[in-house]
Every structure is written in C-alpha cells, then in structure tokens.
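U., I forgot to send this yesterday:
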Amino acid sequence: MAKRIQFSQHGGPEVLQLVEFDPAPPGPGQVRVRNHAIGLNFIDTYYRSGLYPPPSLPSGLGTEGAGVVEAVGEGVGRLKVGDRVAYAGGPLGAYSDVHTLPEANLVKLPEALSFEQAAAVMLKGLTTQYLLKQTYAVQPGDFILFHAAAGGVGSLACQWAKALGARLIGTVSSAEKAERAKALGAWATIDYSHEDVAKRVLELTDGQKCAVVYDGVGANTWLTSLDCLRPRGLMVSFGNASGAVTGVNLGILSQKGSLYVTRPTLGTYANNAENTQAMADDLFGMIASGKVVVDIQQRYPLGEAAKAQTELTARHTVGSTVLLP
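Result:
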C-alpha cells in the first residue's frame, strides 16, 4: 500500500488527510513514478479551497515532483523503468508516494540535479524559461521590469536575466525583499509601497522605459505596467495575484505607444513532450552551470502537508519548499 494526501471537501489545511491507497497499474501511455521529492506551490491551496475545483472529490493534490519510473503502460517508449524523471503538469496527485501521469508530462532528469532541486524548480523554472526565452527573447542590455521580483518566479528571473545580460528592474514591497532581489541579480529595485513605479522606471532608464514588462500581479498593476513600456513594447500579463485584468479598452494600447500585450500560460509552451523536454534541458543547464540557484529553505514529511501549506499561506516560508515521501 502507498500513501497520499487527499481531501474530500473544500476548506483550510485541516481538510487534508494522509490515507493509504493501492495504486493501479499505469494505463496506455501512462507512467507510474516513485516520488523522491514533491513541490509545494500556492496553486495547490486554490484546489484545496475550491477556488479551482478539482474534477471530482475525494481528490489528490499537487502537480510537481521528481522521482524514478516504477512502471510503464502500453505504448510508452521514451521512458523506461529506472529512469530519473521530473514533472510539473497534471493530473492532481503529486502529494503521494507514487504518482501516475501521462508519459508526455514527464522530462528526463540528469544526474547533475537532485530530486529535491527538480521538485522545487520545475513549475517556476519552466515558467521563467518561457517568459525570458520565448514570450519575449530577452537580449543583452534590455531594460525589463519584473513585478514581485523576490517571489518564486521573480527570484529565478532575477538570476536568469542577469545571466542573459539584461537589466532587470524588480518591484518589491519592502527593503528586505529589495535586498534579496538585488542579491539574486536584479539590476535595480523599486519599492512600490512608497515609490512611484512608472516615475522610477523613467529615471532608471534615462527616459527609455522598458522593452518588456512581466506582470504576475494583474488588476492592481495593469495601468502602471503599461506606463513603464517603451513604444511598441510588450506587456506580458502572466498571472493575477491581485485579481484578473478585465474590461480592457484596446485603444489604451495605441495611446501609450502602439503597445503589444499577451496573456501566456505554461501549458501553451510546454504543449508536448519534445517542447517540455527542451525547456527543461535549458532550465537544468542553467542550474548545473550555477547561473541559477535553487533555494530550498523548507522540507516537510509528506504527512505534514497541512502544516507546510499553513506556513506557505502565512508567508512564513522563504525560497522553495519540498515535501518528502
């Protein structure tokens, strides 16, 4: 028997239960992974609370992990039993000793990376990869603005942008977070709690403004972000921590300089096995080179998933958190 975290009703961390289950053999095109480490992400709390309803209840939880292939279903050819793998896509159920998922959702994990590193970085790291390398191909010398630069994705973006030779200006909410973002490679920071972001961008760039703005905040920063872009600049709205951007008048894009805007998601970029593996290889290469460091600050046993989520939502965690089966 294996163990997993599941919930039978929506609510706070207290609804999470550690239960025993008998894992079914993988079906056609599926792979069963023996997890060695599991990633903890804020989106997990949305499924638990019901903000993002799972397909059915009771439900497993989590979409990110790393381990070893334990069994393969009919038609699986790219992976074999014993392979080291990592994943960042569904279905829900990563909070478990073993997890079964489509072969296409798995990437091969090089020996140079640990299971903990992979589980902590897959979701945020693949997001950073597509943002900086695909949605807009960041060039040396580019001025770019990244909101929440000390956060999960922002922490990786600071490091990766520096490696690309770009000048990342990061918005933060405190002096401590400004210090963290700079230590990670931000070229400059703006504390939005008492500074005018658009005005400071104008000053920092000598009036040029930014080639691209990466905005995972959403409603609260939409207009400010547009004001930070140079003519024909690109607004990348990739998240909605403060609420979704709605009711947009397209005319505002012409008024502010013939701007472009996109609302990307990871699934559109990591949309097949080949693309996902290529993105992961780029990410793993950055980590192996030391240009991007995975900062794991918390480790919890799988059975303490409720405690881990409580600490996460209370903002008591720093860097990445992993669960260990």
